[in-house]
Amino acid sequence: MRRRSILGTSLAMIAAMGLTACGGGGDSGASKTVRITLTNHVWTENIKRALPEFEKQTGLKAEVTQLGEDQLSDQYNVKLNAGSSDIDVMMYRPLQEGRLFAKNKYLADLSEQVKANKDWDFGDFQAGPVEATTYEGKPVGVPIITEQEVLYYRKDLLEKAGLSAPPKTLDELKAAAAKIKAAEPDVAGFVARTGKSAAVTQFSSFLYSFGGDFVDGGGKAAVNSEAAKQAYAYYGGLIKDSGPANVSTDMSWSEAMAIFTQGKAAFYTEANSLYKNATDPAKSKVSDKVGFAPFPAGPSGSKPYNIPAWALGINANSENTGNAWKFIEWATSKAQTLAQQKSGVPGARSSVWTSPDGTSTFPKDMVEAIAASTKDGVGHDRPQVVKVAESREIVGQPIVDAITGKDAAAAADTANAAFQKFLDEEAK
Length: 428
Fold this sequence. Notes:
eight-stranded mixed beta sheet, 428 residues, globular, alpha/beta, D-Maltodextrin-Binding Protein, domain 2, single chain, 19 helices
């Protein structure tokens, strides 16, 4: 309880500092109550503790509705479809529903707001997350929480295998995984997500590093490009040849993480946001043996995703957009982003990753891995479409086929035809 109190006080003080940089006038005659819809998250809990200072400095009242992810989606479906104005600020997932919301004009264009205050500094936000919160060249959200894919590995197993450093390339990863599996019969050389839909996001970094993407520059399906075929064959083959015995093809992060934290795998590629599952002694049998490294380079270099898991936007039908922006400007300020990061929430601003304060709570090798990821990171980890779930089922099928030993190239051709049909239907 004392720790929570101290953290809350600290966040409030930093929040007050951040307000000195906040500009943007409110709407003339608009409500002094800003209605904010947020999801259950550490970020949300931190913001709620700091709200009294926001209210004191602005004279505004922050009215927060906090919901689970499913409830949040249900509320947005009902209220946004109905053109409701009783939501001002929206916490949303840019890569899950962002394109749908933007296409349906649920999100206000923030082009003028992000340029209005130089001290707030929109240029400080990383390129990948900004790409994901931009629609048709216009910013429609501000990223607040980021994720990158990194390589988790077992330091002790590398040392035992005579490997002086974690693999820097995908070729090195393949060789190291095979070597360790051959020497350690009860340990997989590599583990990762295998489920048709669940694996897509983590497979994406392999796809980009081989030089591919889900669509080409003209918006056409590209999951049967030569680069994509190589990526499918590599990912599936790595799990088939060096993965756990009798590997399941429906694993999401929790199942793959469990194999790694039980000491049953040497390498694991996954979102950095989940790292505490591997380093917490209460959750991991190998907590003191885990290391982190940048995503290994493929033929096109190391190109992991660098995405915003969540962002803040303004309901286009809000009648209180000026005051809604005041909240977003405060909540995403440099000071508030730093406070969030110090509590373990990875921020989207470059400045928090170059600040000793900002990186003090993260493992040193994780900070280095993230720095490498943000440098050339790609701003999406799944197809950028409206019907995201359906698209993942299509482009994820070749992953499963490759894991089970089927022809990855033929599976990619089949998936590409289905994905192009999907894109054509969505474009109508």
